[in-house]
Amino acid sequence: MRKPIPTHFQGESPDPVLVMGMHNSGSTALSRCLHACGLFMVNNATQCESHFFSNYVNDELLMGGGANWANYPIMSVDEVMSYRETVGTFMLQQWRIDLMQWGYDGTSPWGIKDARTCVLLPLYLDVFPNSKVLFIRRDPDDIAASLCHREKPGVGVLKDHQYWKKLTLAHFERVETFGRAHRWFHEVGYDELCRQPAEVGRRVHDFLQLPFTAEHEQVYCRTMHRDRLATKTWTAFKWRVMAVKKGLQVMLE
Question: What is the DSSP string of 190-219?
Fold first, then answer.
């Protein structure tokens, strides 16, 4: 439940951890692990996302809503940065007020997860210059195959593998260009995370300067699974089976 809006916050808030990844890249699972292990992430917009950042700022104010998140070519850097004095200033003034309504204490490590942030990374790094960029990379053909078989907001089901792959690579390029030039950048391989969740999780926590206990190790091992690897090789029947399995998981959450 929401808490009263804080009006007299005393303290200094850190800049966020930016969990970067294309849609269907494993960023949701990674974010769930991080949230369960002490990194505060508002989960009020599904997929471990913040309604304020994902739906209002990124989708509505910056990308214009609808299917614009899936546009190719992606927004240019100049277009993204043209919002610095308007939307960027608004973000800086309002983010803490929003998060504290959902339980954030104002001083703990916190994070933002949203695939649109890959495109918008130049703006985020300008607004939050001390952010840590955590990029989860998955095989672009696996991502494209997954996107081809799932209904997405404003797009529906678009079975165009090459389109999704081009869009994925554009997201990768933007993150690599600005993330690697940033002083705090760490890349996670999706396949390795699924196969060795404890080892990779420990490296992630070392990068974020978060503790990693035996309990945290169990969180990663429970959350990460190998059943969604190599989706580019799946048959139509397997996609139907996995869709049923996913539906059951959502019902039980």
Answer: HHHHHHSHHHHHHHHHHHHT----HHHHHH
3-state secondary structure of 13: coil
Contact 28, 47 (CB under 8 A): yes
Query: Which position has the token pair 């130049």?
Result: 122
Cβ partners under 8 Å of residue 165, min gap 6: 140, 141, 143, 144
Residue 253 has pLDDT above 80, yes or no: no
For residues 72 and 161, give the distance between their C-alpha atoms in angstroms, rounded to a whole number.
Answer: 13
Q: How many CB atoms lie within 10 A of CB 149?
A: 18
The pLDDT value recorded for residue 8 is 65
pLDDT tens digits for range 121-151: 999 999 999 999 999 999 999 999 999 988 8
Distance CA 52, CA 63 (A): 14
- CA R_g for the chain: 18
In angstroms, the Cα distances linking 5 to 11, 55, 94, 105, 162 are 16, 20, 11, 12, 46
